[in-house]
From TrEMBL:
<dbReference type="InterPro" id="IPR000086">
    <property type="entry name" value="NUDIX_hydrolase_dom"/>
</dbReference>
<dbReference type="GO" id="GO:0006753">
    <property type="term" value="P:nucleoside phosphate metabolic process"/>
</dbReference>
<protein>
    <recommendedName>
        <fullName>Nudix hydrolase domain-containing protein</fullName>
    </recommendedName>
</protein>
<dbReference type="GO" id="GO:0047631">
    <property type="term" value="F:ADP-ribose diphosphatase activity"/>
</dbReference>
<dbReference type="Pfam" id="PF00293">
    <property type="entry name" value="NUDIX"/>
</dbReference>
<comment type="similarity">
    <text>Belongs to the Nudix hydrolase family.</text>
</comment>
<dbReference type="GO" id="GO:0019693">
    <property type="term" value="P:ribose phosphate metabolic process"/>
</dbReference>
<dbReference type="GO" id="GO:0005634">
    <property type="term" value="C:nucleus"/>
</dbReference>
<dbReference type="InterPro" id="IPR020084">
    <property type="entry name" value="NUDIX_hydrolase_CS"/>
</dbReference>
<dbReference type="InterPro" id="IPR015797">
    <property type="entry name" value="NUDIX_hydrolase-like_dom_sf"/>
</dbReference>
<feature type="domain" description="Nudix hydrolase">
    <location>
        <begin position="33"/>
        <end position="189"/>
    </location>
</feature>
<dbReference type="InterPro" id="IPR020476">
    <property type="entry name" value="Nudix_hydrolase"/>
</dbReference>
<keyword id="KW-0378">Hydrolase</keyword>
Amino acid sequence: MSQDSKILSAEDLSTSEAKWVKLKRIHWSDPEGKHRTWECAERTTRGSSGIDAVAILAVLRSERNAFQPSTVIVEQFRAPVGKYVVELPAGLIDEGETAEETAIRELHEETGFKGTKVLESSPLLVCDPGMTTANMKLIAVDVPFPDKLEVSQQKPEPGEFITARIVELHKLDEELKAYESKGYVVDARLSHFASGYVMAEKIRQMKF
């Protein structure tokens, strides 16, 4: 890219002008019977599946153990936070698609890698339940290689500027922590996975 992305200006937006989200006031009753209100953002693009999006954990592996099990992460500018964010490949579910079909498609578009099968599909997850109705599924996808790791060509949609990086799973937590010094922020879902991976290894070895 010839230059980095940056925020040029920002202004308040009325719901009538918004294309993808709208604000909603919720009236609800707490366990003591008290009537309360809450404000949140709601997606306007949710299809009949009831699921907004998927995040994809690609498991890159060699059938001959030529390289360490790895995954692919992406870097892209996110205007709401005004910074480049490190995250898992992700995307919105198209009408008529399952979450698993979306995961295979989006992984190929954003990273070039072709998943051969879904290893695991999470239950429905909420992203920021105190702020938004947005939900998603986390889909783990198998990406095997006969021998050595081969980098694939991305197929981004117009207007998408995504950098894909391959990271060995056992180095993921360390790599993500290094991003802060470079001015990036890390998506919470990716950070939680990396921390869980490290903790699982510590528990396995009982090293605290």
